Amino acid sequence: MESKKLNSIIKVYIINLPEHKDRLELMTKQMESLDIPFEIIVGFDGEKIKDEEMFIFRRDISCAVTKGEVGCALSHLKAYRKLIDSNNEVALVIEDDVIIPSNLKNIINEIVNRNDDEKKLVTLLSKVNKYINKPVYELSNGQGVFRTIDAAFAHGYIINRSAARKLLEKLLPVWCVADQWTLFYQMGFIKLHATIPAVLNTHPDFECITTITGRELESTKACKKKSWLEMKNSTPIICKVKKFLWSVFIKPFVKIVKCQPE
Length: 262
Prior knowledge:
The strands form two sheets. The protein has a nine-stranded mixed beta sheet, with helices on both faces. Strands 4-10 form a two-stranded antiparallel sheet. The chain has one domain: Spore Coat Polysaccharide Biosynthesis Protein SpsA, Chain A (Alpha-Beta Complex), CATH 3.90.550. Strand 1, helix 1 (about 20-35) and strand 2 form a beta-alpha-beta unit. About 35% of the residues lie in helices and about 20% in strands. It has helices at about 20-35, 55, 65-85, 105-115, 160-170, 180-185, 220-235, 235-250, and strands at about 10-15, 40, 90-95, 100, 120-125, 130-140, 145-150, 155-160, 190-195, 200, 255-260. Helix 3 (about 65-85) packs across helix 5 (about 160-170). It is α/β, with parallel strands linked by helices. It has eight helices and eleven strands. It holds the Pfam family Glyco_transf_25. It comes from Serratia symbiotica. Keywords: Transferase.
């Protein structure tokens, strides 16, 4: 049975660039049909950043290389700031190109009711790459919420205040793309869960359309590779120790599921 209203402790944010009116119209229709209140986060258009001003927004060593990647990261960080400045404890952050399932309200409420305020927790509603095959808990619709160790999409996720605060603290100026969840988890910034199967998928009208250009350039790829190497070499010792302990004492005793690309 569909919930009569959304849990009052959660805020729903939809990230949208003003020029993408078709996307906003699509999202508005979907959300209103399900009676889900939401707030628009006006996205940060990275293409409008002047070259000489980029140092203000992006660190010298950064895997967010293109202006679009920087703008996308800043847009998600803007949503985190909105959550922290609100009276809400949790937020659902959605990009403007997804299909909203009819049972989204129930799923949100169930996840929020299981939220642990003591943990810096992000629960992905999008597809993931690898997860531990033992659910943290199960949803009433048969889906499970699993501990996730490898994921790289940011078009829909639930984040609590402590996780939002930590990511704001650690990710400004921008040095990584918005959806580098694996790294955020490995660095100890957040705990990472995900719904399996995914709740939110990209709308087919926008699936092959990206607002972030320049990623395919060889110069961009070279910059990313150089930045990854530099960051790897400067990884804090505590992260290396945790990775070692995970590899020796945990990984051999859990079943890791690798999702197949569609």
